[in-house]
């Protein structure tokens, strides 16, 4: 005769009941602590949403209103007024300090970096553009590319290429990607790295045939191929 197998179901039920029993005991023993923790979490969550609604949102609206004139000066290439304000409206530097934690303050870092880039203060441009955080379809890559421009002006072509390629790959599109691949290729060409230049010129022709950069790309490709045959 075969031996009777132990009832696994009964053992499982017993184990579950024991676990529930221990949990109940823990809750009863630590009820006050648990209630305090839950209360703190509720206060934190409510405080967070209240902070956003009653503090950040009004500041965001005000920051956007105040930054309007700085953006106008930027468009007019009045860079010092864009940075420092005109006495009636603040500049990007003031927006950053007065309205920190807002989207406008973050965007001001981008504008400030580009202002310094145009003014020839390349390290300051890098510092502010590095602080700017954005995944926008165009502005994000333009900030990375701006850092590349600054490094190129500082005679650091390897760093410039790194940021150009980073900018090109950050968001794949028909505007910023071929623009910064082209800049990377041109820096390689200046440095006589014709193989890498040819690689990026060819990439532009293949992947971005409708872009502005592709219009005369065959001439660049033919020139690189000629240089490699010498």
Helix and strand arrangement:
Elements: H1 8-29, H2 31-75, H3 79-84, H4 92-98, H5 103-118, H6 122-131, H7 139-153, H8 157-170, H9 176-190, H10 194-207, H11 217-229
Helix pairs in contact: 2-5, 4-5, 5-6, 5-7, 6-7, 7-8, 8-9, 9-10, 10-11
Rg (CA only): 30 Å
The parts where pLDDT drops under 50 for at least 5 residues are 43-55
- CATH homologous superfamily of the domain at 134-230? Tetratricopeptide repeat domain
Predict the CATH topology of the domain at 134-230.
Answer: Serine Threonine Protein Phosphatase 5, Tetratricopeptide repeat
Helical percent range? over 70%
CATH class label of the domain at 134-230: Mainly Alpha
Broad shape: extended
Supply the number of helical segments.
Answer: 11
Distance between termini? 93 Å
- Work out the number of β strands: 0
What's the architecture of the domain at 134-230, going by CATH? Alpha Horseshoe
Order of helices and strands: HHHHHHHHHHH
Indicate the mean pLDDT.
83
DSSP strand content? under 5%
Largest sheet, strands/sense/barrel: none
Q: Which structural category fits the helices and strands?
A: mainly alpha
